[in-house]
Amino acid sequence: MRVEQPPHLRRSAPLSSQRRSEAEQPLVIIVDDDASVQEALSELILSAGFQHVCFSSTRELLDADVLDSAGCLILDVRMPGASGLDLQRHLAQSGNPKPVIFLTGHGDIPMTVQAMKAGAVDFLTKPVRDQTLLDAVIAGIAMDAARRAEAAVVKRNVERFETLTPREREVLHQVARGRLNKQIAFDLGISEVTVKLHRGNVMRKMEAASIGELIRAWETLPAPMREVGGARTAA
What we know:
The protein is α/β, with parallel strands linked by helices. Helix content is 53%, strand content 11%.
């Protein structure tokens, strides 16, 4: 998305294939029903070297193909139709808690508290100092990068966990509890040698160089996977 395009194109054009190939580059999404505010924010974001796209309503944004991109949102709190707070709530419920910076023309303490409790990066009252907004944008992009990195680690560990056999999952569960090989062998009714073989397979499949690394990977797994019932007992 090129910011040099006229406002009406910036509001309605979908994320291009070129944009998808540059998915690692953060995109600042601006949602404000005031065209003059869009222009001012566009110039500021462009001056800081960030890619951006503008929309006039939350509906326009939801109809576009941009929310999966890295970056953050700058939202006007009050807009026709769904408000900025409504959009923040929708994103959280859909599993895409994108960092949000709220802008409002009127200070509203209850609304500020609600937004911040829901994870907003900041809640700024117009007119806002350029540097204050840019600082919030940088913080939002950093938050999103950290969230994406964490999600990538979880996804990788889940994929590795799913390659384990039911018995290997049981052994991993026992190792995570701090059980010794002889204790695991007794609990599972197998030999200590077999436990060592399973444990070696677990280390290899989870790509863990040490027990500490294995436990850290285990702790990133969703709770159901960390339960004993998550692994069926081998025949």
